[in-house]
């Protein structure tokens, strides 16, 4: 698989400047950052939540975790992680676990954690487990202009080795 058609359309419609970064196959955002030799704070991951009203996407650095209480307060909804089966149906042009952040293009309310706005550049999944999109933060924020910016994530503690 290559870049998702939905993401490609978004990049084209915004006139985004970006580069594609190839990396060895990985199945986690932390693994992707390591495989691509990039700082985890600059790799945006997309986490999908759901409730009886539908889906909500949260976009945050790979080194962060969602504070559900903050997301619940922000949305006024009691969201839970979406099921993998649903991800396959919603993101038909992406591999499971390689969701690009442009979830508004898939018809979903999207929240962007403010911590990404302070990075000099941003990387994110292109729709598969072997390609990332790399762009300047200004380009990324323009691409994500329909997402609501908020603070809902916290840095994960490093695990002892």
TrEMBL record:
Superkingdom: Bacteria
Segments forming domain YbaK/aminoacyl-tRNA synthetase-associated: 24-143
UniProt xrefs under SUPFAM superfamilies: YbaK/ProRS associated domain
Keyword flag Hydrolase: yes
Top-level enzyme category: hydrolase
EC number: 3.1.1.-
Any Pfam family the entry gives: tRNA_edit
Protein name: Ala-tRNA(Pro) deacylase
Organism in which the protein naturally occurs: Caballeronia udeis
